[in-house]
């Protein structure tokens, strides 16, 4: 009522014709511009953003500054701008510049009253206040929902989901609105032309069809929260939609994973997605993957395939290895967030890639994280003192182990529907060298000790996923699946006598490979074998379904992996585990 009375008073004072209050208010707000103020208590500055005479003003001011100084700054900037304009016109006409020193009216109102100019900025710029600058009035919008990041991916493929990267402040993505458009015809879009766009979708994720090939797409997204909306952003794709690869190796697998599982089941994925820093080396292009088309090794292309593959599994827990730091933040997180999943990332020391664990937020909540670098834990954690003593007996081996940046990501999740159910998720990528079986055994011994510590702190069931770089015939697989490894196992001498140490290893867990022992999970030109596993404890979970791996024909359609139809040199393991 106060605001409405104030507006009626304004119209009266300005000598406008008498109209009823509601009509006056509607007309007033229709003509009123918008000024956005961002002011949060944990920062010393606030920002004031508005458009004046076609120029965008963005002012950064101290929250403790008096309002009068800001208003004076706005007034002075107008006088200077007008002076420059008059001077330019006068010079052009050969005349003397006119005097433009008259100060414009710059005032701030709230609830019908002038706001005192000795008020602090933090108090003065309230939501709903009105800033008058000359004849223009601005409604103050304080801390409205705002996109701090809004980007479309560079690569758009027909049949593959387009997931924008979006971060919102003072709002929630679930409260935002989305409208997708496609060009009416190729190259129809030109700056300032809106008639060339045809509405194509209204969800957060858009999947272009073959009919969209050669067209750009546009997204109009409006940030929101439970009570209001902010300023919309329009994003136009930098390129056009390109043709997809046709049938992919994972298409048939998606037939088994069309729906999200119910509360009684947990769908788990483990997948080495091939880091870009490895895919783009000269060695990869000429020696490791010479059969793969160069464009199919590009990160944007492979990420399009990865996002479609992962979204189609409708998983509850996803463990990824070889995740580029940028791919996690710019591609995977935005995409999987749109499909209902949150994720955590652990980068390897001195590397640009690492491990990522995602979980479905409707089924799990994050309790804690307990990530370690295995070599650092071996050297510093007293729980590994006996193991360190054994390893130190061979300085050559110790040096090799200590140099490795191998990491163990440990994420503790709690069931949303039944808080008594807790899952400790281990995710790792062990040392890669074919003769490094001895190093991997030491790494695994450290990992198991650490997982035991975490499981004692957070009782529940263990899922241990990853690329273990070990075949089912290895000592490491024997240790995990049988619970022990004798001191005379041949893997202790995997790299010759100069790196030999011998010790018995015991596992504190009774684990089984949920997906069994596939013929291979890694298939490249010079090697194929089973290196990836989802290990589980049988006390709390049982295997309900193992999603079949692609057929050998699908894997070898383009000779080996990666290929135009498969984004990695590894194959994802997918299984459904049922709570007992």
From TrEMBL:
One of its GO terms (molecular function) is metal ion binding. Residues 270-570 form the Endonuclease/exonuclease/phosphatase domain. The keyword Nucleus does not apply. The lineage of its organism: Eukaryota, Metazoa, Chordata, Craniata, Vertebrata. Its main location: mitochondrion. Its cofactor is Mg(2+). Pfam families: Exo_endo_phos, PDE12-like_N. This is 2',5'-phosphodiesterase 12. Keywords: Exonuclease, Hydrolase, Magnesium, Metal-binding, Mitochondrion, mRNA processing, Nuclease, Phosphoprotein, Transit peptide. GO terms for biological process: mRNA processing; nuclear-transcribed mRNA catabolic process, deadenylation-dependent decay. Residues 144-242 form the 2',5'-phosphodiesterase 12-like N-terminal domain. Belongs to the CCR4/nocturin family. It is found in: Mitochondrion matrix. PANTHER family: 2',5'-PHOSPHODIESTERASE 12 (PTHR12121:SF37), CARBON CATABOLITE REPRESSOR PROTEIN 4 (PTHR12121). GO terms for cellular component: mitochondrial matrix. The keyword Acyltransferase does not apply. InterPro entries: CCR4/nocturin_mRNA_transcr, Endo/exonu/phosph_ase_sf, Endo/exonuclease/phosphatase, PDE12-like_N.
């Amino acid at each position: 009522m106060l605001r409405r009375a104030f507006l009626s008073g304004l119209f009266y004072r300005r000598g406008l014709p008498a109209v009823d209050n509601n009509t006056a208010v509607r007309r007033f707000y229709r003509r009123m511009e918008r000024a956005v103020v961002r002011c949060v208590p944990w920062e010393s500055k606030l920002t004031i953003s508005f458009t004046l005479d076609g120029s965008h003003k963005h002012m950064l001011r101290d929250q403790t500054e008096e309002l009068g100084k800001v208003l004076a700054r706005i007034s002075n900037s107008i006088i200077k701008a007008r002076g420059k304009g008059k001077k330019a016109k006068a010079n052009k006409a050969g005349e003397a510049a006119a005097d433009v020193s008259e100060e414009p009216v710059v005032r701030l109102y709230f609830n019908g009253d002038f706001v005192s100019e000795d008020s602090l900025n933090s108090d003065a710029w309230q939501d709903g206040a009105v800033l008058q600058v000359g004849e223009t009035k601005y409604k103050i919008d304080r801390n409205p929902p705002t996109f701090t990041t809004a980007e479309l991916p560079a690569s758009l493929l027909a049949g593959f989901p387009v997931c924008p990267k979006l971060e919102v402040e003072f709002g929630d993505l679930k409260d935002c609105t989305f409208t997708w458009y496609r060009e009416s015809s190729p190259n129809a879009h030109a700056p300032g032309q809106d008639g060339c766009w045809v509405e194509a979708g209204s969800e957060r994720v858009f999947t272009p069809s073959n009919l969209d090939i050669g067209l750009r797409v546009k997204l109009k997204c409006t940030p929101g929260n439970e009570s209001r909306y902010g300023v919309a952003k329009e994003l136009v794709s930098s390129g056009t939609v390109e043709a997809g690869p046709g049938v992919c190796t994972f298409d048939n697998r998606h037939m088994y994973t069309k729906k999200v599982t119910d509360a009684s089941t947990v769908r788990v994925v483990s997948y080495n997605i091939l880091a870009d820093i490895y895919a783009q080396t000269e060695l990869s292009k000429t020696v490791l993957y010479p059969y793969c088309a160069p464009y199919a090794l590009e990160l944007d292309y492979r990420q399009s395939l990865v996002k479609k593959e992962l979204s189609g599994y409708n998983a509850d827990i996803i463990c990824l290895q070889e995740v580029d730091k940028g791919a996690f933040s710019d591609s995977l997180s935005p995409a999987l967030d749109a499909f209902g999943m949150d994720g955590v990332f652990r980068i390897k020391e001195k590397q640009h890639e690492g491990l990522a664990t995602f979980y479905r937020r409707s089924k799990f909540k994050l309790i804690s994280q307990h990530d370690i670098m295995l070599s650092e834990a071996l050297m510093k954690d007293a729980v590994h003192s006996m193991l360190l003593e054994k390893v130190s007996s061979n300085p050559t081996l110790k040096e090799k182990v200590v140099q490795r940046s191998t990491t163990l990501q440990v994420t503790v999740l709690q069931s949303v529907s039944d808080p008594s159910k807790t899952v400790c998720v281990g995710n790792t990528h062990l040392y890669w060298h074919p003769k490094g079986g001895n190093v991997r055994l030491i790494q695994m011994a450290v990992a198991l000790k650490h997982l035991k510590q975490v499981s004692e702190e957070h009782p529940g069931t263990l899922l241990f996923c990853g690329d273990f770089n070990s075949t089912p015939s290895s000592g490491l697989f024997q240790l995990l699946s049988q619970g022990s490894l004798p001191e005379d196992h041949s893997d202790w001498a995997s790299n010759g006598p100069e790196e030999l140490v011998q010790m018995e290893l015991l596992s504190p867990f009774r684990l089984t490979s949920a997906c069994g022992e596939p013929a291979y999970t890694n298939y490249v030109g010079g090697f194929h074998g089973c290196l990836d596993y989802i290990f589980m404890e049988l006390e709390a979970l049982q295997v309900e379904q193992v999603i079949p791996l692609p057929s050998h024909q699908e894997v070898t359609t383009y000779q080996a992996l990666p290929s135009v139809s498969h984004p990695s040199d590894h194959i994802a393991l997918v299984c459904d585990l049922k709570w007992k």
